[in-house]
Automatic annotation (TrEMBL):
PANTHER family: CCHC-TYPE DOMAIN-CONTAINING PROTEIN, PROTEIN CBG26694. This is Uncharacterized protein. Residues 40-77 are annotated as: Disordered. Residues 66-77 have a biased composition (Polar residues). Coiled coil: none annotated. The lineage of its organism: Eukaryota, Metazoa, Cnidaria, Anthozoa, Octocorallia. Pfam families: RVT_1. Residues 48-60 have a biased composition (Low complexity). InterPro entries: DNA/RNA_pol_sf (IPR043502), Retrovirus_Pol_polyprotein (IPR050951), Rev_trsase/Diguanyl_cyclase (IPR043128), RT_dom (IPR000477).
Length: 327
Protein backbone atom coordinates (compact mmCIF):
# COMPACT_ATOMS: atom_id res chain seq x y z
CA UNK A 1 0.00 0.00 0.00
CA UNK A 2 2.39 2.70 -1.31
CA UNK A 3 2.08 6.08 -2.98
CA UNK A 4 2.74 6.12 -6.70
CA UNK A 5 6.24 7.31 -7.48
CA UNK A 6 8.68 7.54 -10.38
CA UNK A 7 12.42 7.32 -9.81
CA UNK A 8 14.33 8.55 -12.86
CA UNK A 9 17.63 9.97 -11.68
CA UNK A 10 17.56 9.19 -7.98
CA UNK A 11 16.37 12.66 -6.99
CA UNK A 12 12.87 13.41 -5.73
CA UNK A 13 10.54 14.19 -8.58
CA UNK A 14 6.84 14.39 -9.29
CA UNK A 15 4.88 12.55 -11.97
CA UNK A 16 3.67 15.07 -14.56
CA UNK A 17 2.71 12.57 -17.26
CA UNK A 18 1.07 9.18 -17.19
CA UNK A 19 2.61 6.20 -18.99
CA UNK A 20 0.25 6.46 -21.98
CA UNK A 21 0.93 10.18 -22.55
CA UNK A 22 4.68 9.63 -22.21
CA UNK A 23 4.56 6.88 -24.84
CA UNK A 24 2.44 8.98 -27.21
CA UNK A 25 4.93 11.86 -26.95
CA UNK A 26 7.84 9.54 -27.66
CA UNK A 27 9.41 10.12 -24.25
CA UNK A 28 9.15 6.46 -23.28
CA UNK A 29 9.46 3.44 -25.55
CA UNK A 30 7.90 0.10 -24.62
CA UNK A 31 9.07 -3.04 -26.40
CA UNK A 32 5.97 -4.93 -27.50
CA UNK A 33 7.79 -7.42 -29.76
CA UNK A 34 6.98 -10.35 -27.52
CA UNK A 35 3.56 -9.17 -26.43
CA UNK A 36 0.17 -9.99 -27.78
CA UNK A 37 -1.60 -6.62 -27.61
CA UNK A 38 -5.37 -6.84 -27.48
CA UNK A 39 -7.22 -4.07 -29.29
CA UNK A 40 -10.44 -2.60 -27.99
CA UNK A 41 -12.36 -4.49 -30.67
CA UNK A 42 -10.83 -7.76 -29.45
CA UNK A 43 -12.11 -7.01 -25.97
CA UNK A 44 -15.75 -6.31 -26.88
CA UNK A 45 -16.72 -9.96 -26.84
CA UNK A 46 -14.11 -11.11 -24.33
CA UNK A 47 -15.59 -12.81 -21.28
CA UNK A 48 -12.39 -12.11 -19.33
CA UNK A 49 -13.32 -8.47 -18.70
CA UNK A 50 -16.49 -7.19 -17.07
CA UNK A 51 -17.95 -3.70 -16.88
CA UNK A 52 -19.91 -3.55 -13.64
CA UNK A 53 -21.25 0.00 -14.08
CA UNK A 54 -20.45 3.38 -15.60
CA UNK A 55 -18.80 4.30 -12.32
CA UNK A 56 -16.50 1.27 -12.15
CA UNK A 57 -12.88 2.00 -11.34
CA UNK A 58 -10.14 1.07 -13.86
CA UNK A 59 -9.18 -1.84 -11.61
CA UNK A 60 -12.75 -3.16 -11.49
CA UNK A 61 -13.05 -2.90 -15.26
CA UNK A 62 -9.78 -4.82 -15.71
CA UNK A 63 -10.50 -7.81 -13.49
CA UNK A 64 -12.71 -10.86 -13.66
CA UNK A 65 -12.68 -13.52 -10.98
CA UNK A 66 -12.84 -17.23 -11.71
CA UNK A 67 -14.67 -17.57 -8.39
CA UNK A 68 -17.79 -15.97 -9.92
CA UNK A 69 -17.46 -17.39 -13.42
CA UNK A 70 -19.04 -20.50 -14.99
CA UNK A 71 -15.77 -22.30 -14.23
CA UNK A 72 -16.38 -21.81 -10.49
CA UNK A 73 -16.48 -25.57 -9.91
CA UNK A 74 -12.71 -25.52 -10.49
CA UNK A 75 -11.87 -22.70 -8.08
CA UNK A 76 -9.65 -24.66 -5.67
CA UNK A 77 -8.15 -22.41 -2.98
CA UNK A 78 -10.66 -19.81 -1.72
CA UNK A 79 -10.31 -16.47 0.04
CA UNK A 80 -12.06 -17.89 3.09
CA UNK A 81 -9.46 -20.65 3.36
CA UNK A 82 -6.61 -18.17 3.00
CA UNK A 83 -7.88 -15.69 5.59
CA UNK A 84 -8.60 -18.51 8.01
CA UNK A 85 -5.35 -20.47 7.70
CA UNK A 86 -3.12 -17.41 7.26
CA UNK A 87 -4.97 -14.90 9.43
CA UNK A 88 -1.72 -13.76 11.08
CA UNK A 89 -0.18 -12.39 7.88
CA UNK A 90 -3.07 -9.94 7.44
CA UNK A 91 -2.63 -8.38 10.90
CA UNK A 92 -0.10 -6.19 12.70
CA UNK A 93 3.23 -4.70 11.60
CA UNK A 94 5.56 -6.60 9.33
CA UNK A 95 9.27 -7.15 9.97
CA UNK A 96 11.13 -7.11 6.66
CA UNK A 97 14.68 -7.90 7.65
CA UNK A 98 16.91 -6.41 10.35
CA UNK A 99 16.84 -2.80 11.50
CA UNK A 100 17.75 -0.41 8.69
CA UNK A 101 20.64 2.04 8.93
CA UNK A 102 20.23 5.18 6.81
CA UNK A 103 23.56 6.59 5.59
CA UNK A 104 24.34 10.29 5.19
CA UNK A 105 26.67 11.90 2.67
CA UNK A 106 29.91 13.24 4.15
CA UNK A 107 30.21 16.79 5.51
CA UNK A 108 26.46 17.38 5.63
CA UNK A 109 25.18 20.12 7.91
CA UNK A 110 22.07 19.05 9.89
CA UNK A 111 18.89 21.09 9.45
CA UNK A 112 16.34 21.84 12.15
CA UNK A 113 13.11 23.00 10.55
CA UNK A 114 10.61 25.11 12.45
CA UNK A 115 7.30 23.57 13.51
CA UNK A 116 4.63 24.48 10.99
CA UNK A 117 1.36 25.97 12.13
CA UNK A 118 -1.57 23.57 12.15
CA UNK A 119 -5.17 24.80 11.73
CA UNK A 120 -7.09 24.65 15.01
CA UNK A 121 -9.64 22.31 13.43
CA UNK A 122 -6.89 19.74 12.80
CA UNK A 123 -5.10 19.85 16.14
CA UNK A 124 -7.31 17.37 17.97
CA UNK A 125 -7.37 14.89 15.06
CA UNK A 126 -3.58 15.22 14.78
CA UNK A 127 -3.12 14.60 18.50
CA UNK A 128 -5.29 11.46 18.25
CA UNK A 129 -3.45 10.25 15.15
CA UNK A 130 -0.06 10.69 16.82
CA UNK A 131 -1.29 8.77 19.86
CA UNK A 132 -2.50 5.94 17.61
CA UNK A 133 0.82 5.73 15.75
CA UNK A 134 2.71 5.78 19.04
CA UNK A 135 0.56 3.00 20.48
CA UNK A 136 1.25 0.85 17.41
CA UNK A 137 5.00 1.35 17.78
CA UNK A 138 5.37 3.29 14.53
CA UNK A 139 6.55 6.55 16.13
CA UNK A 140 7.96 7.50 19.53
CA UNK A 141 8.23 10.72 21.54
CA UNK A 142 11.63 12.43 21.55
CA UNK A 143 12.81 14.45 24.54
CA UNK A 144 16.58 14.70 24.03
CA UNK A 145 18.20 17.25 21.67
CA UNK A 146 18.40 16.06 18.05
CA UNK A 147 20.54 17.33 15.17
CA UNK A 148 17.74 16.91 12.63
CA UNK A 149 14.16 18.13 12.93
CA UNK A 150 11.86 17.64 9.95
CA UNK A 151 8.60 19.38 9.12
CA UNK A 152 5.26 17.67 8.60
CA UNK A 153 2.25 18.32 6.40
CA UNK A 154 -1.20 17.45 7.72
CA UNK A 155 -3.98 16.91 5.18
CA UNK A 156 -7.63 16.03 5.68
CA UNK A 157 -8.85 12.92 3.85
CA UNK A 158 -12.27 12.57 2.23
CA UNK A 159 -13.49 10.31 5.05
CA UNK A 160 -12.73 12.97 7.67
CA UNK A 161 -9.54 11.38 9.02
CA UNK A 162 -6.14 12.99 8.52
CA UNK A 163 -3.00 12.06 6.66
CA UNK A 164 0.34 12.80 8.32
CA UNK A 165 3.13 13.37 5.79
CA UNK A 166 6.78 13.88 6.62
CA UNK A 167 8.47 16.73 4.71
CA UNK A 168 12.14 15.74 4.89
CA UNK A 169 13.47 17.68 1.90
CA UNK A 170 16.68 18.87 3.60
CA UNK A 171 17.29 15.35 4.96
CA UNK A 172 16.67 13.80 1.54
CA UNK A 173 19.46 15.90 0.06
CA UNK A 174 21.80 14.46 2.67
CA UNK A 175 20.83 10.78 2.43
CA UNK A 176 22.83 8.37 0.29
CA UNK A 177 20.97 6.77 -2.57
CA UNK A 178 19.95 3.13 -2.63
CA UNK A 179 20.55 1.22 -5.87
CA UNK A 180 18.17 -1.60 -6.72
CA UNK A 181 16.67 -2.63 -10.09
CA UNK A 182 12.92 -2.26 -10.57
CA UNK A 183 11.08 -4.83 -12.69
CA UNK A 184 9.37 -3.87 -15.95
CA UNK A 185 6.66 -5.55 -17.99
CA UNK A 186 9.38 -7.13 -20.15
CA UNK A 187 10.73 -8.96 -17.09
CA UNK A 188 7.34 -10.60 -16.57
CA UNK A 189 6.67 -11.65 -20.18
CA UNK A 190 8.62 -14.95 -20.02
CA UNK A 191 6.26 -16.09 -17.23
CA UNK A 192 3.11 -15.52 -19.31
CA UNK A 193 3.41 -18.23 -21.97
CA UNK A 194 0.62 -20.40 -20.56
CA UNK A 195 -0.74 -17.96 -17.99
CA UNK A 196 -4.47 -18.31 -17.39
CA UNK A 197 -4.93 -17.28 -13.75
CA UNK A 198 -3.56 -14.28 -11.83
CA UNK A 199 -3.68 -13.06 -8.25
CA UNK A 200 -2.57 -9.62 -7.13
CA UNK A 201 -1.68 -8.91 -3.51
CA UNK A 202 -0.77 -5.69 -1.75
CA UNK A 203 1.64 -5.29 1.17
CA UNK A 204 0.04 -3.80 4.28
CA UNK A 205 1.62 -0.39 5.03
CA UNK A 206 4.66 -1.47 3.05
CA UNK A 207 7.35 0.94 4.26
CA UNK A 208 6.32 0.50 7.88
CA UNK A 209 7.39 -3.13 7.61
CA UNK A 210 11.03 -1.95 7.63
CA UNK A 211 12.29 -1.12 11.17
CA UNK A 212 14.87 1.64 11.73
CA UNK A 213 17.89 1.50 13.99
CA UNK A 214 18.21 4.16 16.70
CA UNK A 215 20.57 6.45 14.79
CA UNK A 216 18.37 6.41 11.68
CA UNK A 217 15.24 6.86 13.76
CA UNK A 218 16.63 10.08 15.23
CA UNK A 219 17.28 11.39 11.69
CA UNK A 220 13.53 11.23 11.06
CA UNK A 221 12.61 13.35 14.10
CA UNK A 222 9.76 15.74 13.29
CA UNK A 223 8.21 18.63 15.14
CA UNK A 224 4.54 19.05 16.05
CA UNK A 225 2.61 21.55 18.21
CA UNK A 226 2.66 18.84 20.89
CA UNK A 227 6.37 18.05 20.87
CA UNK A 228 8.84 16.05 18.81
CA UNK A 229 8.53 12.48 17.59
CA UNK A 230 10.75 10.09 15.65
CA UNK A 231 9.81 7.29 13.27
CA UNK A 232 10.63 3.77 14.41
CA UNK A 233 9.62 2.44 10.99
CA UNK A 234 10.64 3.60 7.52
CA UNK A 235 8.43 6.63 6.79
CA UNK A 236 6.90 7.74 3.51
CA UNK A 237 8.79 10.66 1.98
CA UNK A 238 12.35 9.47 2.65
CA UNK A 239 14.10 9.54 -0.75
CA UNK A 240 15.64 6.02 -0.71
CA UNK A 241 12.55 4.42 0.87
CA UNK A 242 11.06 3.00 -2.34
CA UNK A 243 14.15 1.10 -3.42
CA UNK A 244 15.00 0.04 0.13
CA UNK A 245 11.56 -1.50 0.50
CA UNK A 246 11.73 -3.10 -2.96
CA UNK A 247 15.13 -4.59 -2.16
CA UNK A 248 13.93 -6.13 1.09
CA UNK A 249 10.71 -7.47 -0.41
CA UNK A 250 12.66 -9.01 -3.29
CA UNK A 251 15.09 -10.63 -0.87
CA UNK A 252 12.14 -12.15 0.96
CA UNK A 253 10.19 -13.66 -1.95
CA UNK A 254 11.97 -13.03 -5.28
CA UNK A 255 13.19 -16.63 -5.62
CA UNK A 256 9.65 -18.04 -5.71
CA UNK A 257 8.65 -19.33 -9.15
CA UNK A 258 5.73 -17.52 -10.75
CA UNK A 259 5.78 -14.69 -8.18
CA UNK A 260 6.72 -11.14 -9.21
CA UNK A 261 7.01 -7.92 -7.18
CA UNK A 262 6.85 -4.27 -8.20
CA UNK A 263 6.71 -1.73 -5.36
CA UNK A 264 4.25 -3.23 -2.86
CA UNK A 265 2.27 -5.18 -5.49
CA UNK A 266 2.83 -8.94 -5.61
CA UNK A 267 1.70 -10.93 -8.65
CA UNK A 268 1.08 -14.70 -8.62
CA UNK A 269 0.84 -16.37 -12.05
CA UNK A 270 -0.91 -19.70 -12.68
CA UNK A 271 0.22 -21.51 -15.85
CA UNK A 272 -1.20 -24.57 -17.58
CA UNK A 273 -2.52 -26.02 -20.82
CA UNK A 274 -6.01 -25.96 -19.33
CA UNK A 275 -7.78 -23.80 -16.77
CA UNK A 276 -7.79 -26.68 -14.29
CA UNK A 277 -4.00 -27.09 -14.63
CA UNK A 278 -3.49 -23.33 -14.24
CA UNK A 279 -5.61 -23.25 -11.06
CA UNK A 280 -3.63 -26.14 -9.57
CA UNK A 281 -0.35 -24.44 -10.49
CA UNK A 282 -1.56 -21.10 -9.11
CA UNK A 283 -2.74 -22.56 -5.80
CA UNK A 284 0.60 -24.30 -5.20
CA UNK A 285 2.46 -21.03 -5.86
CA UNK A 286 0.05 -19.07 -3.68
CA UNK A 287 0.60 -21.40 -0.73
CA UNK A 288 4.37 -21.11 -1.17
CA UNK A 289 4.04 -17.32 -1.17
CA UNK A 290 1.81 -17.21 1.91
CA UNK A 291 4.14 -19.54 3.81
CA UNK A 292 7.13 -17.40 2.82
CA UNK A 293 5.35 -14.23 3.95
CA UNK A 294 4.76 -15.87 7.32
CA UNK A 295 8.41 -16.98 7.57
CA UNK A 296 9.88 -13.60 6.54
CA UNK A 297 7.49 -11.28 8.39
CA UNK A 298 5.69 -9.87 5.34
CA UNK A 299 2.18 -8.56 6.07
CA UNK A 300 -0.51 -8.38 3.38
CA UNK A 301 -3.57 -6.16 2.92
CA UNK A 302 -6.68 -8.33 2.92
CA UNK A 303 -8.84 -5.54 1.48
CA UNK A 304 -6.71 -5.27 -1.68
CA UNK A 305 -6.46 -8.96 -2.54
CA UNK A 306 -7.49 -9.94 -6.08
CA UNK A 307 -7.67 -13.74 -6.01
CA UNK A 308 -7.62 -15.88 -9.14
CA UNK A 309 -8.53 -13.38 -11.83
CA UNK A 310 -8.42 -14.01 -15.57
CA UNK A 311 -7.20 -10.41 -15.99
CA UNK A 312 -5.45 -7.96 -13.67
CA UNK A 313 -3.90 -4.48 -14.05
CA UNK A 314 -0.14 -4.52 -13.47
CA UNK A 315 2.68 -2.05 -14.22
CA UNK A 316 0.55 0.07 -16.52
CA UNK A 317 -0.80 -2.92 -18.46
CA UNK A 318 -3.61 -5.44 -18.19
CA UNK A 319 -2.45 -9.05 -17.98
CA UNK A 320 -5.02 -11.50 -19.34
CA UNK A 321 -5.20 -15.17 -20.24
CA UNK A 322 -5.28 -14.05 -23.89
CA UNK A 323 -2.37 -11.62 -23.83
CA UNK A 324 -1.21 -8.21 -22.60
CA UNK A 325 -2.46 -4.74 -23.39
CA UNK A 326 -1.64 -1.22 -22.14
CA UNK A 327 -4.14 0.34 -19.74
Amino acid sequence: DLPEETDIDGENCTNLLGSRAAQQMGLVNVNYDNMKILSESDQKGDSHTTMTSSESSPTERSTHSILTSPESSQTGLTMEQITSEYKDIFEGLGQLGPKLHLELEENVKPVQQAVRKIPESMKDPLRSHLAELEEKGIIERVYQPTEWINSIVVAKKSNGSIRLCLDPRPLNKALKRCHHPMQTIEDILPELGKAKVFSKLDCLNGYWQVPLDEESSLLTTFGTPFGRYKWKRLPFGISPAGKIFQSRLDQAIDDLEGVKTVADDILVIGNGDSLAEAITDHDAKMKQLLNRCRERGVKLNGTKFLLKQTSVPYIGHVLTSAGVKPI
